[in-house]
């Protein structure tokens, strides 16, 4: 029986560059207040490859946000935490941090392994463990530190920074991880829901250093004896939970990078199709449900199969036994920012000052060009892809008639959408029928998908939205609240605290 005097929930999103907190009404889902602070806690390391942040300063900022949002009231029901994954902070027996946060951008895993002049620590660890790992993963960072005697003397375990904050809020002395965070560290057995004891011991590391993984999705403690604290929750999963209202099962996000995420019923619809496999899959538990066997990924052992089906997808278990399927682009809005930079350089070359509303002008020229049917074919994979990092972008179909600024603007925006569309098409068959309505063109209210759009690229660029409508043949809803991850973590805490019993209940609050 929940306390009827409790009326609000707080969600924290501990990002790499900002820390955001939101206060939410637990009955209506209304966001009452929000606070965003710069995460200016970076620490200069001894090595160029180090990317470090100060855990104590992050904790201070988080506590300050919570105090300001709660404002001394006693109606706070629960607190949820999400944020940057993969990175680790070492913790002593009393639950104190004894190292900086070694974040996901840290490059020590790319250092050459002793005696292996052409292989990195991440590559050697992957080969020896049977897991696909990358630099920045906590297991890789810990392995490097163990090999080079860099583990702090007082350390007994490690965890992500969101887990460290949740642990402190709950008054615990050791971290307890939800599967979504645990899987992000690597060397995690999806089938068992724990870190792989045999693999870790075979590598010579102490298994007891790896943190405990929760068996159930439930609160882990109380903040000041008044508010339940949920376990830290994966950031992509929190963003999905805080964006998608149930009418849509597809989330398209365009920020610096871009992403398409689909909510499905099982592991890529693969039950009963044992010959199918996934090549680039990252599988992360989220909320309740038994982990299916079959889908392997970054941090999990590859499945021996007869053929591969998908090359560019990550599979992340989601609520009530369901899964998120995620395709990511390395550019997205960054591609449009590059184009803006080109125009700024041209203006400077002509001795002109760039306009403060250059993006508005670019959109106007691009829209005019599109209406005239004049465009260029642009591949916006300027940073490559996760599957083929060596790939680079290109411009095609150039003629005397379309070598124009508007055509290039239009081509870049269409290229951003094309990459997302191709990622989506890889798992198009997994979209439940409920995501489709009747008719032909989603923009005109006929046939098409219901999708949710998020990220500043979509929120701030009407031309990009128009192209997405047509490319996906979709109706698109943009969430009311831009702080999707923080909002989603608040909703997740309501679930783990028992205030809401299902995904459907939570989605009923998303606006």
CATH architecture of the largest domain: 2-Layer Sandwich
Query: Roughly how many Å apart are the termini?
Result: 27 Å
Fourth-level CATH superfamily of the largest domain: ATPase, nucleotide binding domain
Q: How helical, in percent, are the residues?
A: 25-40%
Low-confidence stretches: 268-297, 302-309, 437-446
Instruction: State the shape.
Output: globular
What is the multimeric organization of the chains shown?
single chain
The radius of gyration over CA amounts to: 23 Å
Q: Tally of extended strands?
A: 27
Percent range for β-strand residues: 15-25%
- CATH class category label of the largest domain: Alpha Beta
Number of helices: 14
Notes on the structure:
By secondary structure, the protein is an alpha+beta fold. It folds into 2 domains: 8-239 and 486-500, ATPase, nucleotide binding domain (Nucleotidyltransferase, domain 5, 2-Layer Sandwich); 245-265 and 322-480, ATPase, nucleotide binding domain (Nucleotidyltransferase, domain 5, 2-Layer Sandwich). 30% of the residues lie in helices and 21% in strands. The chain is built from 14 helices and 27 strands. The strands form 8 sheets. Strands 1, 2, 3, 6, 16, 17 and 18 form a 7-stranded mixed β-sheet that branches. A hairpin with a 3-residue loop joins strand 1 (8-14) and strand 2 (18-25). Helix 1 packs across helix 4, helix 7 (235-241) crosses helix 13 and helix 9 packs across helix 10. The chain is globular. The model is unreliable at 268-297, 302-309 and 437-446 (pLDDT under 50).
């Amino acid at each position: 029986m929940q306390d009827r005097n409790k009326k609000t929930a707080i969600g924290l999103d501990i990002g790499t560059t900002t820390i955001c907190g939101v206060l939410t009404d637990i009955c209506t889902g209304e966001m009452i207040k929000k606070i965003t602070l710069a995460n200016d806690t970076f620490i200069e390391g001894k090595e160029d490859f180090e990317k470090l942040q100060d855990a104590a300063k992050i904790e201070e900022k988080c506590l300050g946000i919570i105090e300001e949002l709660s404002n001394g009231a006693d109606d706070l029901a629960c607190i949820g935490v999400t944020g940057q994954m993969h990175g680790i902070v070492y913790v002593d027996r009393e639950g104190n941090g004894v190292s900086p946060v070694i974040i996901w951008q840290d490059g020590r895993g790319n250092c050459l392994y002793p005696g292996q002049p052409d292989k990195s620590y991440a590559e050697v660890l992957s080969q020896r463990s049977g897991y696909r790992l990358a630099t920045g993963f906590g297991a890789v960072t810990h392995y490097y530190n163990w090999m080079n005697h860099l583990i702090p003397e007082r350390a007994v375990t490690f965890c992500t920074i969101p887990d460290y904050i949740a642990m402190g809020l709950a008054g615990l002395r050791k971290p307890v991880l939800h599967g979504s965070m645990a899987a992000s560290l690597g060397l995690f057995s999806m089938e068992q829901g724990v870190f792989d004891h045999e693999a870790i011991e075979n590598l010579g590391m102490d298994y007891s250093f790896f943190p405990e993984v929760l068996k159930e999705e439930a609160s882990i403690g109380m903040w000041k004896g008044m508010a339940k604290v949920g376990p830290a929750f994966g950031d992509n999963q929190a963003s999905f939970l805080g964006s998608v209202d149930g009418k849509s099962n597809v989330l398209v996000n365009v920020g610096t990078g871009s992403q398409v995420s689909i909510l499905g019923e099982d592991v890529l619809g693969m039950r009963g199709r044992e010959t199918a496999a996934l090549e680039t899959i990252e599988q992360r538990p989220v909320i309740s449900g038994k982990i299916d066997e079959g889908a392997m990924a970054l941090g999990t052992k590859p499945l021996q199969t007869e053929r591969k089906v998908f090359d560019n997808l990550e599979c992340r278990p989601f609520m009530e036994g369901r899964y998120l399927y995620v395709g990511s682009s390395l550019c997205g809005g960054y591609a449009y920012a590059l184009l803006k930079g080109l125009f700024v350089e041209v203006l400077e070359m002509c001795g002109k000052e760039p306009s403060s509303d250059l993006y508005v002008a670019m959109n106007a020229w691009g829209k005019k060009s599109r209406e005239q049917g004049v465009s260029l074919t642009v591949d916006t994979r300027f940073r490559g892809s996760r599957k083929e990092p060596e790939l680079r972008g290109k411009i095609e179909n150039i003629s005397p008639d379309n070598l124009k600024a508007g055509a290039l603007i239009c081509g870049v925006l269409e290229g951003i959408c094309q990459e997302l569309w191709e990622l989506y098409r890889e798992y198009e068959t997994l979209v439940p029928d409920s995501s489709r309505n009747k008719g032909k063109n989603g923009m005109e209210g006929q046939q098409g998908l219901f999708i949710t759009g998020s990220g500043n690229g979509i929120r701030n660029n009407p031309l990009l939205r128009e192209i997405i409508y047509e490319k996906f043949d979709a109706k698109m809803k943009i969430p009311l609240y831009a702080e999707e991850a923080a909002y989603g973590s608040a909703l997740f805490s309501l679930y783990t605290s028992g205030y809401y019993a299902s995904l459907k209940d939570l989605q009923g609050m998303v606006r």
